[in-house]
Amino acid sequence: MSENEKQILRKHIRDMLAAMKTEALAAKSRLAVQQLITLTEFRQAAVVMIYLSTEREVNTVPLAKASWEAGKTVLVPKVNITDRHMIALECKSLHRGLIASSYGILEPTDGEAHPIESIDLIVVPGLAFDRAGHRLGQGEGFYDRFLATPGMRATTVAMAFDEQVLDNVPINGTDWPIDILVTDSKVIRVSSS
């Protein structure tokens, strides 16, 4: 699939999410987070990396809070647009030390990059997913490059609304698959074969 076709699909998904009622999104978010925090991989993880959600994504605030309550180290991505590079920084509060990036996403203002080898679980964002673990991101490739970093061993989990699960998501050679997809109604474990 061409990049133009991917852009058309991205617009379709964004329009669909924009049309969903705020109350429905909130209810579905709560269900998806509940599904994720019951996963063995989440319960056993000491270090979790969580993206800070935007308005039309599964709300990750309750997931961050549940992680802190369970004594986990919470990491949040910080993007360097110039270098097209992403690092994971520790986040201890949603009320201080964060600033909106040029993409409008909250990220830590400062800190040292956390060693990727110590990350147990990464919650990966996306616009659409399929049952084979393919994801359609925003198109910048930050997560694909980050997940391909040598030494990465973390389990990757995506949270989405059921409406974001498609029969087939277009991929290319640089797209990085996820291990588990969690929605408001199901958990899909992707076969490694």
What does this structure look like?
With 193 residues, the chain is α/β, with parallel strands linked by helices. It has one domain (3-189): Rossmann fold, CATH 3.40.50. It has helices at residues 3-19, 22-37, 40-44, 61-69, 142-147; strands at 47-50, 73-80, 85-90, 98-100, 106-108, 121-124, 128-129, 135-136, 155-159, 180-182, 187-189. The protein has a seven-stranded mixed sheet with strand order 3-2-1-6-9-10-11. It starts with a helix and ends with a strand.
- What is the average per-residue confidence, as pLDDT, rounded to a whole number? 89
Tell the overall outline. globular
Q: Which secondary-structure class do the elements indicate?
A: alpha/beta
Tally of strands: 11
CATH architecture descriptor text: 3-Layer(aba) Sandwich
Q: How far apart lie the N and C ends? A: 23 Å
What does the main sheet amount to? Answer: 7 strands, mixed
Number of domains: 1
Order of strands, main sheet, comes to 3-2-1-6-9-10-11
Radius of gyration: 16 Å
Helix content: 25-40%
Low-confidence stretches: none
Number of DSSP helices?
A: 5
Q: Could you name the CATH homologous superfamily?
A: NagB/RpiA/CoA transferase-like
